[in-house]
Amino acid sequence: MIVRIMGEGQVEIGAADIDVLNELDSELEAAIESDDETEFRTKLHALLDKVRHVGKALPDDSLEPSELILPPADASIEEVREMLGDTGLIPG
């Protein structure tokens, strides 16, 4: 799966890592639902850090279509709330 972190670039994520990312996504959703800004910030950074860690960075000149777009680390809770779908930021 090709993932874009807004403002950073693209990474390729293996199927084996999706479950861990979904767990972090669920924790982020819970923080958003409770309107807990501190917890939201912690969970957003944890999700993005995990994507960066398990993902293989694609070259900057790569034009692969992104299957998933994640917010930047400095996104507001409202901006991320607007990006959430029925299954969170990460489907599955």
From TrEMBL:
Record's InterPro entries?
A: PspA-assoc_dom
Q: Which Pfam families match?
A: PspAA (PF22743)
Q: Name the source's superkingdom.
A: Bacteria
> Which residues belong to any copy of the PspA-associated domain?
1-92
State the protein's name. Answer: PspA-associated domain-containing protein
